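FAQ

Q: What does a record look like?
A: Structure on top, sequence underneath. For example:
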């Protein structure tokens, strides 16, 4: 099976890492659209245009069987249109894990950390409204401006990143938030720093494993046997931090090249 995965940068590699744990005998083509990063600061029309172009490139160049939109912002902006335009393609998106957060919280105080574009998106708003309508849960939404970019640049443990996290997280701790939804695929990379501020008991919801299991289940429709070697190609449109790639993919072997799309 040939699987395309993309994000505006390296955050989506956290999703790919989850997929690699369960899906075998496949070729993976990951596009880090770094020249246009971050998506969270682009308009819906701009994001949709990039998503369509990337999908067409993956289909025409590699003949992918499945596409994973490893970005909450891009999913919100484009998944409906992509499914309409490419009905023959398995397309899986990334959404904030509000539902598992509802099952996890004991204080009924849940925080959503995401980009501004994700929080403003219709898809997120509809999901949030539907899930909390008949519950006593209070959502604390935090647009984490600049965080994905800092992580992309490898600023995982810098004072600048810690200061941003403290600014956003300390009010959550004061309001007895016990569960945080990581609404951007970059954010699992700073989970350890979130725990340092919030405490080790904080529950962090990351949807990478759920996406991986969904793809595994859908692969059965293609008679995928799920055995054998894997092949990983990392493609990128701008600059890329290979130290971060190796950290996220745990030094798995991969090919790489710059592309112009």
């Amino acid at each position: 099976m040939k699987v395309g995965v993309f994000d505006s940068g390296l955050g989506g590699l956290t999703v790919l890492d989850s997929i690699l744990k369960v899906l075998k005998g496949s070729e993976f083509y990951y596009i880090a659209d770094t020249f246009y990063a971050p998506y969270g600061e682009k308009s819906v029309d701009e994001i949709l245009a990039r998503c369509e172009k990337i999908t067409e490139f993956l289909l025409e160049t590699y003949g992918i069987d499945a596409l994973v939109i490893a970005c909450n912002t891009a999913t919100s902006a484009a998944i409906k249109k992509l499914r309409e335009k490419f009905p023959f393609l398995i397309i899986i998106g990334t959404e904030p894990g509000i539902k598992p957060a509802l099952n996890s919280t004991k204080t009924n105080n849940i925080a959503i950390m995401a980009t501004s574009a994700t929080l403003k998106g219709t898809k997120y708003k509809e999901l949030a409204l539907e899930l909390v309508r008949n519950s006593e849960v209070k959502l604390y939404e935090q647009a984490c401006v600049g965080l994905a970019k800092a992580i992309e640049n490898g600023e995982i443990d810098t004072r600048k990143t810690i200061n941003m996290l403290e600014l956003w997280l300390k009010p959550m701790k004061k309001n007895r938030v016990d569960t945080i939804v990581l609404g951007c695929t970059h954010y699992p990379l700073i989970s350890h720093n979130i725990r340092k501020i919030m405490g080790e008991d904080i529950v962090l919801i990351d949807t990478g494993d759920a996406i991986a299991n969904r793809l595994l289940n859908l692969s059965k429709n293609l008679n995928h046997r799920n055995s054998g070697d894997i092949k990983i190609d990392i493609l990128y449109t701008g600059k890329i931090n290979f130290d971060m790639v190796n950290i996220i993919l745990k030094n798995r072997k991969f090919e790489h090249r710059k592309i112009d799309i």
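Q: Is there anything notable about this one?
A: DSSP finds eleven helices and ten strands in the chain.
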